[in-house]
Amino acid sequence: MKKELYCYLRVSSKEQEEEGNSIENQRFLGQRVSKKLGMKYVEMNEGHYSTTKKSRPVLEEIKTGIRIGRIKHLWYYSRSRWSRDEYEDGLIRLHYFMKYKTKVYEGESGQLRHFDTPQNRLLDGIFTKIQQFDREHRREVSVSGKKHLSITQGHTGVFMGGSINFGFDNIDKKWTINKEESKWVKKIFSMYVKGSSLVDIKTYLDSEGVSPRRSKVWNIGTLLTMLKNRVYVGEYEWKLKDEFDKSLVIEVFNITVPQIISHSLFNRVQKKIEKNTKNKGNNSRQHESLLSDFLECECGENITGVVKKKQGFKSYGCRSKEIKYKQSNRKINPCSNRRTMNMDKTNELVVNEITKVVSDSSILKEKFKEDVMKNKKQTEKELEQQKTDLEKKIKGIDTQTESIIKSLSTIEVNKIVGKIEDERLVENTIKVLKEELESLDDQKTQYIGQIDDFDNQKDWIDWVGKYGKDNLERFKKPTTDMLEGFIDKIVVSSVMGKDRNGKELQIGHSFKVHFSSPIVDDQIEYIDQKKKSKGYNVINGKRVKKTKTLYPSLGGRPKKKRI
User: Where does the pLDDT of residue 544 fall: very low under 50, low under 70, confident under 90, or very high at 90 and above?
Assistant: First the structure.
């Protein structure tokens, strides 16, 4: 019976595996060595497991195979592919290769490793150290090169390696928009913001014959990652990670890339993702509850409605306890909202408060609504123009940022090559440039916030158009869809007190209703009180309204008697 040569294949990254060259090359060499030795080729493909990972399944399988006597002959391309370092290699050599008399071949020629005498073991160990040094040195050179690239060319959209995102191409080591794919990126964002689910988007893309980069069909995880990725608004971060702990980020470098999606669309998508994520996995939402889409606990988790029709039980409660049980790895903030809320009483209290705000709001007075609706198209056009102007300003800031980063990188290069004469002057220049960078970043954040405000205004105008007429009548029987137009969220806080025995506990709930527009205590100020026909100005109010406390029904056990 022909002997078997078990050939271990591995690459250190997903990109290397997908490109196929490294694995294919190792496979070809393994088959060639097998043929040379007159053995049957048996492939043990680890795929893209890094040596920094604690467990490599195929390596463990090989160890087991050696221990039970199934694997007698082993080959791998290089020791850098085989083990983490000289210590791991030494342990495997001692406890597996030598103990079970396994023959080990390596490299293109299938060179047999010798460790039968002290001299051979010494030489073998020295060779392992040399290969480890070579691997570490190559990584150091690679990281150093990437750091230099990010500092000197980060402003030009330099590509740092790996697999480039869908919607872009790597042309001459620069991020470049792929015209065809970028159309689909815009379509994905547009569909999601209009209400399509990730499943709907996946089905649509697959049916249209659009393929992602790494597989033949789309999956929901890939789509969600795309929708959350700021690379599509022109911001990419290259992270320098620790060699042995990939979760530890040593330094972050910002790379400016071409923009595909506007900040306005990206912001709206993030809000929708946040809302949908909060409701994910919530099996209690089988029945409709008016405020479940808006209620948020003070601990940061979602508050949802539970309806048990047979028992006649309807309540709202914080999900933190349920999430802590189901997602044990997730960090949950301490929560004081231990008590549930009667759903009908909660709905009544909150809706009454909202109705009062709406009825008192000058912005929602009939005359204002008429003005808004009469000029709705014009107002929407103006809002879009203002958003476009802000997007241009953001691009202008990005250009200024690129220029400053270029100046900083030039100074860094000059320092490295020894062209700097006055160190103090240079340090002062660097300080001024970095302060300007911070100022530009703050300005950009402000503009992005203004775009978000304009989006809220547009949503508000749409809501007024849909529900503005006879809004007080409509509040007699409100719907979730109706509330969604002008309420962002309702934060529920615990109200603490003491029980009959003097022990502190939760005695109720208070609510802060966050409106999408400043309609709480707003006012209309006429230009001329005597001649109101001259028009008026709307004085914005607040966005938040705190309600009175909701107390649970009284009852329970009587106070303990003192003995």
Answer: very high
Would the pLDDT of 203 be above 70? yes
Which pair of structure tokens corresponds to residue 222? 């890939």
Residue carrying structure tokens 């909150």: 350
Contact 3, 77 (CB under 8 A): no
Percent of the chain with pLDDT over 90: 16
pLDDT range class, residue 154, cuts 50, 70, 90? very low
Helix (H) or strand (E) holding 111: strand 111-112
pLDDT at residue 15 in the model: 44
Quickly list H helices, 423-562: 423-467, 471-474, 480-484
Q: Is the dihedral of CA 424, 429, 435, 441 positive or negative?
A: negative
Does the predicted model carry a pTM greater than 0.70?
A: no
559 pLDDT more than 70 = no
Concatenated DSSP letters for 65-81? Answer: HHHTTS--EEEES-HHH
* CA atoms of 66 and 306, how far apart (whole Å): 56
Q: How many whole angstroms separate alpha carbon 94 and alpha carbon 526?
A: 91
The count of other CB atoms within 10 Å of the CB of residue 474 is 15
Q: Name the strands in the sheet holding 487-498, side by side, starting at the edge strand that comes first in the sequence.
A: 295-297, 487-498, 504-515, 544-546
Nearest in space to 153 (alpha carbons), one of 298, 256, 260? 256
The whole-number pLDDT of residue 39 equals 94
- If phi > 0 it is left, if psi is from -120 to 50 it is alpha, else beta; for residue 20 that is left
Is the dihedral angle over the CA atoms 200, 206, 210, 216 positive or is it negative? Answer: positive
The DSSP 8-state label assigned to residue 93 in this structure reads: I
Q: Indicate the burial class of 172 (C-beta count within 10 angstroms; 0-12, 13-18, 19 or more).
A: exposed
The CATH number assigned to the domain with range 157-261 reads: 3.90.1750.20
Assign domain 4-138 to a CATH class. Answer: alpha beta
Structure tokens, 424:
């103090």
**Domain range list for the chain:** 4-138, 157-261, 283-364+468-563, 365-465
Taking only the tens place, the pLDDT of each residue in 205-240 is 988 888 887 778 888 888 998 999 988 988 887 776
Q: What is the mean pLDDT of residues 25-45?
A: 92
H helix or E strand, kind and range, residue 127: helix 118-153
| β partners of residue 255 | 236
Q: How far, in whole angstroms, is CA 236 from its chain's centroid?
A: 13
- Can you read off the two tokens belonging to residue 168? 């872009």
- The answer to whether the beta carbons of residues 44 and 193 sit under 8 Å apart is no
Residue 558, CA atoms < 13 Å, CB-side half-sphere: 2
CB 474 within 8 Å of CB 467? yes
Give pLDDT tens digits for 72-84: 999 988 877 677 6
Q: d(Cα 366, Cα 373) in Å, to the nearest integer?
A: 11
- Judging by beta carbons within 10 Å of its beta carbon (0-12, 13-18, 19+), is residue 119 exposed, middle or buried? exposed
Cα separation, 238 vs 249, whole angstroms: 10
